[in-house]
Specification:
The protein is 41% helix and 13% strand. With 348 residues, the chain is α/β, with parallel strands linked by helices. The strands form two sheets. Strands 7-6-5-8-9 form a five-stranded parallel beta sheet. The chain has a four-stranded parallel beta sheet with strand order 2-1-3-4, sandwiched between helices. Helix 2 packs across helix 11.
């Protein structure tokens, strides 16, 4: 549905893109995002980030809490010269007094981009159906695309010389979470080998493997779903995530019994991986459960580089999805409006 607007941000854009899953983007498009991340990270290092989000705002809807997603988007908007609005269920009437459709329509008139971290995919889908500005999935129960940008960018930064992503094998230790699914689809898009290593009960559902099959047929990537912990010996990257999420506390004891101690990332497990293997973790880390503190602090751990790259990714996302709609007025136009407004103010 197209909505008329007088907004200076040029709503109702043709060919507008949302970011719901990395599977919706070509390898070439993701490579462009990586290159933009490279440039912005270097600019930040030099304290010389161009104000490419100046005068713009991102609405951040949070049904679920997050340290990295909130801070990275808010900091990214500020660094780029823009503004971020934190909107919790206490702040807006999302899906309650006001429909998600109407929320999307209103936010589209007032902000330039919408980021949502939700507990149900239906919220994300409803926002994308009605929004006339780009919607970014900050995490739902299916996908975590912003995490994927940071993850693969970090892996690229720490790859052995002479290797490419397609030469690497990544092992995800644990449950078939949104992060695990997203890694499956993103790694195979780059021709990587992906392994989920965990108990049979918590392995990847067939619908996601079907999607990966289609990707692998095009890219030459591959995957293996296994409970064999010895498979870490074939892996260049070991990836950790929580064995349970906030909505699964009633399953906590059962899950921990299934995963511990065999699938906990320890220094001993890292020693069994390929020489030079790196440790990633999307954080927060339960360092007495899925990963030990000793492993997380090991010289092979790049988990905190990965966390910093969430900021790098969010800067790139804000620019990538809005740069074509930047309207730079001439000094003459600005002066015309200033004169008209000042003339009116003098009458008050």
């Amino acid at each position: 549905m197209k909505l008329p607007s007088s907004s200076a941000t040029n709503l109702n854009k043709e060919n507008m893109r949302h970011m719901i899953s990395m599977k919706d983007f070509s390898k070439s498009e993701i490579d462009d995002m990586f290159e933009l991340m490279d440039l912005l990270k270097q600019a930040r290092k030099d304290n010389a980030v161009p104000q490419l989000f100046k005068g713009k705002s991102v609405a951040m809807i949070f049904e679920a809490g997050s340290t990295r997603t909130r801070v990275s988007f808010e900091a990214a908007a500020t660094i780029l010269g823009g503004h971020a609005l934190f909107l919790s269920p206490r702040d807006i009437h999302l899906g309650g007094k006001e429909s998600v459709d109407d929320t999307a329509r209103v936010l589209s008139r007032m902000t330039d981009i919408i980021m949502a971290r939700t507990n149900t995919p239906e919220i994300i889908d409803a926002l994308t159906n009605m929004s006339t500005v780009p919607v970014i999935n900050g995490l739902d129960t299916r996908f975590h695309p912003t995490q994927m940008l940071a993850d693969l960018f970090t892996i690229r930064e720490h790859m052995p010389k002479g290797k490419e992503l397609k030469d690497l094998t990544l092992a995800f230790m644990g449950d078939a979470t949104d992060v695990c699914r997203s890694l499956l689809l993103t790694c195979t898009k780059y021709g990587m080998k992906f392994k989920q290593i965990g108990p049979v009960k918590y392995q990847m559902e067939q619908e996601w493997l079907d999607l990966a099959d289609d990707i692998c047929a095009e890219t030459g990537g591959s995957y293996e779903i296994t409970d064999d912990i010895d498979k870490v010996s074939e892996c260049d990257v070991i990836y950790g995530d929580s064995f349970y999420w906030t909505t699964q506390y009633d399953e906590k004891d059962e899950r921990l019994a299934a995963f511990m101690p065999d699938y906990v990332i320890t220094t001993e497990l890292m020693a069994r991986a390929k020489e030079g293997a790196t440790l990633l973790h999307c954080l927060p880390a339960n360092d007495k459960e899925e990963v030990t503190r000793e492993a997380l602090e090991g010289e092979y751990s790049v988990a905190f580089d990965e966390a910093e790259n969430r900021l790098t990714a969010q800067m790139a996302i804000l620019v990538y999805f809005t740069h074509k709609d930047i309207v730079v007025p001439t000094a003459e136009v600005v002066k015309q409006h200033e004169d008209k407004i000042n003339k009116f103010l003098k009458t008050l």
